[in-house]
Design a protein that fits this description.
The complex is a heterodimer of chains A (256) and B (113). Chain A has 256 residues and is an alpha/beta fold. Chain A has helices at 4-10, 37-48, 62-68, 88-93, 111-116, 129-147, 198-204, 243-252; strands at 28-33, 53-59, 76-80, 101-105, 121-124, 156-161, 164-169, 173-178, 183-187, 191-194, 210-214, 217-220, 226-228, 231-234, 237-240. Chain A is elongated. The longest helix of chain B has 30 residues, at 83-112. With 113 residues, chain B is an all-alpha fold. Chain B has helices at 3-10, 14-40, 44-60, 64-79, 83-112. Classes of the chains: A alpha/beta (256), B mainly alpha (113). The A-B interface holds A 35-39, 41-42, 45-46, 82, 84, 106, 125-126, 128-130 and B 9-12, 16, 19-20, 23-24, 27, 49, 52-53, 55-57, 59-60.
Amino acid sequence: MQSTPIINNIAAKNTKKQSFTRIKSMLLKCAIIDDDPLFTRIIEHYLSGVDSIDVIGVYHNPAEALNKINFRDVDFLYLDVEMPEMTGLEFLLSLSVIPPVVLVSGKKTYGVDAFEFNAIDYLHKPVSHARFMKSVGKVKTHFEKLMIPVNSGQKNIFIKHDGIHIRLSVDDILLVRANDNDVTIVTHGRSYKTHLRLKDIYDMLPQIDFMQVHRSFIVQLSKIDKVDGEVIEINSRTIPVSRTYIHELYERLKIK
Amino acid sequence: MDILELKNYLNCDNTFLETIIQKFIAEVQEITKTIETAAAAEKWPVVKLNAHKMLSSVKIFEIDELIILLEKVEINAEKQKNIPQLKKDIEKLIGLSAKAIFDAQTALEELNQ
């Protein structure tokens, strides 16, 4: 199993950003996919002592998991890397949206892949109860972070524009667009170019109100005028939505 | 096989430990048979796959000699190199598996005493 092609392929995908609604109660739902029944039995046993995680399915074959799992009902996966017919990494790449995942393997060589897939944790088999519980802690932290709306209540941000720091009202921001060498913040009245990265600006904004919809676009959700499939419109501007973000966007806009 | 150590490792009671040991015995018996049949038919990808699967279980029980041999069989079956040596290793593997099953059965008896 070579890791490089997979790493290249994943550049086109992003890991799933959990909806704020599903994990409100912090009862997480997981599925276990591993061809070793002894190992899955042990993981089930470990999880039986964890109140906040429910196992909704155990699959010994990735193809079966693909057919049976409703990914809208699953918060994360325990996924074996080395399985016959389809590896865990190939399994992830076959999904339109990659869910949060704890990768499991008998080999230590998949650390880079775990990083590339933004895995919550990487467990090396065999896994002791103590190590597994540490991993449960990481899973909880991962989802707790998603539950806290970052920068909630933030009213203004400062950006450097034409050499000076100016204050922008968050409410005025329609969208943020990444260009080749800079980033443009579009407000109702005008646009501002800044040399911050798109991610830096996203980190400054209240994430409950804003969402990244494309690798080059962040939008303020309340400013969206139209949604047409994978395209949205804000103030007569057309913005593409990546496949990676479309489910989350529809969920956050409560579009059925 | 140190039962107490395994119990601590898995943080479980005797009932669960018994389940795991029984599963281990069943799995090793089945996989060994599959490897033996596949090796006779020179189906090396099947040998590789099953050696990998068994490795995962054997590691839980820390049977070092079997772990080393299974790793070797997995690699050589994948590369399909030095087939005579691979066949010898598989024969050895069958013997060690039988010993592992015997030890596991002994551990089960100890657990039930």
